[in-house]
Amino acid sequence: MVKGKAVQSAKAAQAAKVVKKGSFLNKKRKIRTTARFYRPKTLALARSPKYPRVARDSQGAHRRSMDHYAIIKYPLATESAMKKIEENNTLVFIVDVRANKYQIRDAVRQLYDIQTSKINTLVRPRGDKKAYVRLTADTEALDVANKIGII
Q: Whose CA is closest to 150, among 79, 96, 101?
């Protein structure tokens, strides 16, 4: 028992000396070799949103693609448009600003059953898009204009 107390007191004295002196005196500082400091990788939690940021439904208003009736708004029947119909075999339509030439071509083919050779578009200062639809040589723009009621 005396021997056990002597061992315990020696351990306690050793611990007291370490506490008094400090145990971290011999620790070396890490030498930095570059000036760049990279942040440590931290915990990346999975997202748990309160509401979905993008709707997953295909029927949402923002997901619905434009149909042919939404792409072509109306034909233009101004004097310059009439001149285009008579001289250049070209119909002029006001179309949706977001529609591209391929969509305009498909819409004209679906709605009026006519083949187009080329389509030019421009955005008017008002903000709407005008499409010049050039028809193929075998189709007369004047006949199509009569059929759809421009003239």
A: 79
- The strand pair at 116-123 and 129-135 is best described as antiparallel
CA–CA gap between residue 22 and residue 20 (Å, rounded): 6
Q: In what order do the strands lie in the sheet with 90-95?
A: 72-75, 90-95, 129-135, 116-123
- pLDDT, one tens digit for every residue, the chain (151 residues): 667 888 888 899 888 888 887 766 677 788 889 999 888 899 999 999 888 777 666 666 666 678 999 999 999 999 999 999 999 999 999 999 999 999 999 999 999 999 999 999 999 999 999 999 999 999 999 999 999 999 8
Determine contact, residues 135/119, Cβ cutoff 8 Å. Answer: no
Instruction: Tell me the Cα Rg of the chain.
Output: 40
Rounded to whole angstroms, the Cα distance separating 103 from 119 reads 11
